[in-house]
Specification:
The structure is a single chain. This protein has 485 residues and is an alpha+beta fold. It is built from 15 helices and 21 strands. Helix 1 crosses helix 11.
Amino acid sequence: MPSDRRVFLGAGLGVTAALASRASGLTTSAQAVSPESPSLPGNVSLDPDVRAATAHDFGRLIHRQPRGVLRPASGADIASLMRWAKVQGVKVAARGQGHSIYGRAQVSDGIVVDMSAMNLIRDIKQDRVVVDAGAKWWDLLNATLALALTPPVLTNYLGLSVGGTIAVGGIGAALSRHGMQTDNVIALDVVTGEGNEVSCSAAENPDLFDAVRAGLGQCGIITRATLRLVRAPERIRRFQLFYRDLPSLTADQRRVLSEGRFDQLQGAVLPDGSGGWRYQLDGAVYHANGSAPDDKAVLSGLSDERGAAVIADLTYHEDALAFGKFESLLRSKGQWFNPQPWLLTFLRGSNAERVAGDILSGLTGDAVGPFGRITLYPLLTKAFHTPLVRLPDEDIAFVFNLIRIPASNDAAAAERMVAENRTLYDRIREAGGVQYPVGAFAMSPGDWEVHFGSGLPQLREAKRRYDYGRLLAPGYNLFSRAGEL
């Protein structure tokens, strides 16, 4: 098997976003900036290069020029900025590692709060860790693994910020056992849109706690998080299994999910290089050194093409960093910097095969690019408890993501993919599915009302209390209608 193909197949399947480092964009908003009108706080940078670096994101689809950039050293710096912004009516967007896909961490003629300097890992105990919101997950994992501990849920790509993933949910391969990353948050420190520094948890200011976790940055900027830790496994036995068709894949996925065979379960539909698809189940079993599971027992009764199976045994740390090799491959081919018009959704378990099959029948491998993929795997919804995380109201849901990695920097093709994302989202929503709210297509306030459903009154009330001026996270276009609050 060619080395590029091995890296592609070995990459984490559930990646939701990635770090960006170069500007370009299809939709632009680059207003001229007057530093004097209105005056800016002295610690806000007006440097053109600093502003340009925050005017784009990983998606390379939206380009919005901020008026200035704050790189805070503390929550107090952010609180001071928010009090100024409240008086001036200036919009503010928090930015972690720039992993947004569709401009959600950008702001036209407002202030970007670059959280990357607030990255300390402050205190590690046997059951929890206190960490600044701008820290990357791989730095946090390195620190906790030194004590044989780990966060229960890791994103497949660890170059994301702690605060950034908590603001949207945070998905990873261990969802069915531990829920999202938001389900493993013990407490948060937040700066509200009113300019107040507030601590919150299930017991202290619980309305803010529930509005900030997966609240899309609407009510506050997370500055520090206390997260749950568990004992880290020593090793992972990873099984990549291949199938002739979609029904065979999902039948085995449902079986191993119900039987709890794997500690991690994912899957994908991959372009086969000839315009068709290849179907993959990816499962992992945790084990200690010297006690690897019996492969025959793990795979007993499954209908995969056994001769194509790839079985690997890695340390927990090696496995967690596997996506880094895929990143290096994409960078080497120049594809890391192309537009990334991704679509991320959850399907109802009761119709997932039909909906996914209907969509796949209208797509070819070109729809995601030679190194793209469609992630597809089931999860148990009972593990999810964050109020603002939206999932189909069934015992089982399927992750269904179009991870589009175009082969070229073709703006017109990317725009077509964004338009197709909207069409597919409408089909999925009509079939009872929901989006994981980071995808590349525009959402109106009415769309968000449907998305949040019964959770919207809670979020609206928190917005009214903690960001009445609607200053925070304008890129989501969530509360933009007159009289919304």
